[in-house]
Write a structure and sequence with these properties.
This protein is an alpha/beta fold and 207 residues long. 43% of the residues lie in helices and 20% in strands. The radius of gyration is 17 Å and the shape is globular.
Length: 207
């Protein structure tokens, strides 16, 4: 069975964090879609708040800590990356930008990336197109057509006849992203120790 590696980068600062929650939901939607297609899926989440000091020190010293180097390695080796940031001053967070500034500009070339952002009001949803897409275009990533913005009022909302609710948007974005990941050659060999995809589907339904 072919194994695909997905890594979510969450720049949320609080605990619990709506940014981390959105990253987890997008990761789950993508994983479910890939499991339907009989892929084994290895998932990891990089919490940037745990690396904030390491990121700052790297800019001063020019050398990454072991933890930061490991996190960057996970992101650049992934078959697909989910990148989610809170919105500060109508843009991505400084920590989010600083982390991706440390990644070689060619390291994500062609890598499928799914974008997400969270904020207190829907007025900041344009950050996805005005800030995040240009950043990952510079990094030469293959950005999914559907990105997801979650305002505070979106959580628990099912939408209406004119607007898709957050769960529907997450499912659509995760499905598109997963299909893009599946269409690219994997960087990872199969691992017989992974849970069979039928069990993955069952586990995901329980969640």
């Amino acid at each position: 069975m072919q194994t695909l590696k997905l890594v979510a980068v969450s720049a949320g600062l609080s605990s619990p964090s709506s940014t981390r929650l959105l990253a987890d939901r997008l990761l789950q939607a993508a994983r479910y879609r890939l499991a339907e297609q009989e892929y084994a899926v290895d998932v990891e989440v990089v919490e940037l708040r745990d690396l904030a000091v390491d990121v700052a020190k790297n800019f001063v010293t020019g050398f990454p800590s072991a933890a930061l180097e490991e996190a960057i390695g996970k992101v650049t080796a992934a078959d697909g990356v989910i990148a989610v940031t809170p919105v500060f001053t109508a843009s991505y967070s400084g920590l989010f930008k600083s982390f991706f500034d440390l990644i070689d500009p060619t390291a994500l070339t062609g890598t499928p990336v799914l974008l997400g952002a969270t904020g207190g009001t829907a007025r900041h949803s344009l950050v996805l197109d005005h800030a995040l897409r240009p950043l990952f275009a510079y990094l030469r990533a293959s950005v999914s057509p559907t990105a997801v913005y979650a305002a505070s009022e979106d959580w628990g909302s099912g939408g209406d006849e004119y607007t898709e609710g957050l769960p529907a948007r997450i499912t659509r974005a995760g499905t598109e992203f997963a299909d893009t990941v599946a269409a690219r050659p994997t960087r990872h060999s199969s691992d017989d120790s992974l849970i069979p995809f039928e069990q993955q589907l069952a586990d995901l339904r329980l969640n």
